[in-house]
Amino acid sequence: MDLKLNNKRVLVMASSKGLGKAIATEFAREGADVFLTSRSEKSLSAAADEIRHETGNDRIRFSPCDMSSADELRDLFSEVRQTMGDPDILINNTGGPKAGGFDGVTDGDWMHAFEQNLLSYARTVREVLPAMKKNGWGRIVNISSSSTKEVIDNLILSNTMRAGMVGLSKSLAREFAGDHILVNTVGPGRIETDRILELDSVTADRLGVGINEITKEQQSRIPMGRYGRPDEFARAVVFLASGANTYLTGQSLVIDGGMLKAL
Question: How is the chain classified by DSSP, letter by letter?
Answer without folding.
Answer: -----TT-EEEESS-SSHHHHHHHHHHHHTT-EEEE--S-HHHHHHHHHHHHHHH----EEE----TT-HHHHHHHHHHHHHHT-S-SEEEE--PPPPPB-GGG--HHHHHHHHIIIIIHHHHHHHHHHHHHHHHT-EEEEEE--GGGTS--TTBHHHHHHHHHHHHHHHHHHHHHGGGTEEEEEEEESSBSSHHHHHHHHHHHHHHTS-HHHHHHHHHHTSTTSSPBPHHHHHHHHHHHTSTT-SS--S-EEEESTT-----
